[in-house]
Every structure is written in C-alpha cells, then in structure tokens.
Amino acid sequence: MILVNISVHDSIKATYLLGKKESFSGNENTIKNFNEIYKLGQYETVDYQILDRVNKFGDAYEVVYVEDGIIKSKVLDSGDCYPVYDDRGNYIAFIETW
Asked: Could you say which DSSP state residue 20 is in?
C-alpha cells in the first residue's frame, strides 16, 4: 500500500492541472503498461477527485492498493487524515480516523 499526500496552495495550479491531460514519454512498453493501469484503475476519475479536494481543502490523500490484480486508488477524506512529521520535518506516519 502506498499513501500519497498531495498539497497545492495555489488554486491556479489546481485549475491548470484540471485543464491539462497527462502525457507520458519513455519506453514504449512501459508507457503502454502505464496507460493500461491508468485506464483499469479509473485514474482519470481519481485525478478529478484529488483536484476537487485540493481546491476545496488545500490538500488530498490517496491510498494506492492492488485488488484482484488491478492497481487502484482510494481518495481519503482530508478531514479525517493527518500526516505525522518528526522534529526535522520528515514524514514518519499517517493517521486516518473514522
């Protein structure tokens, strides 16, 4: 499981991201596999959910997991999630309440 913390402090950045589609470059097979994962995991919808929450709350949290052999993501409720940092600002934990 991978936790992704996304924070955008400027609504202009989020607006830009909402209006632009992703483009990938690199090894042809890698790009093909990545696009397949993106499609099967319904990441276009996830992207909009993330950016919607960034616009509303200033941050978003995403859990990436594998279900039935398909890589998927779940966007978490920002009000119920708290990243934990040590005294040096290093990310050390994540707390989700429900």
From this structure: S
- The whole-angstrom separation of Cα 94 and Cα 98 is 13
Task: Please give the torsion angle defined by the CA atoms of residues 69, 51, 15 and 90, in that order, rounded to the nearest 10 degrees.
Answer: -100
For residues 94 and 4, what is the distance between their CA atoms, to the nearest angstrom?
10
Look at the block and give the residue holding tokens 């050390």: 92
CA-based nearest residue to 75, from 88, 89, 64, 86: 64
Render pLDDT for 7-65 as a digit per residue (tens, 0 to 9): 544 455 555 555 666 666 788 888 888 888 888 888 888 888 888 888 888 888 988 89
Q: d(Cα 4, Cα 64) in Å, to the nearest integer?
A: 8
Residue linked to tokens 């991201």: 17
How far the first Cα of the chain sits from its last, in Å, is: 19
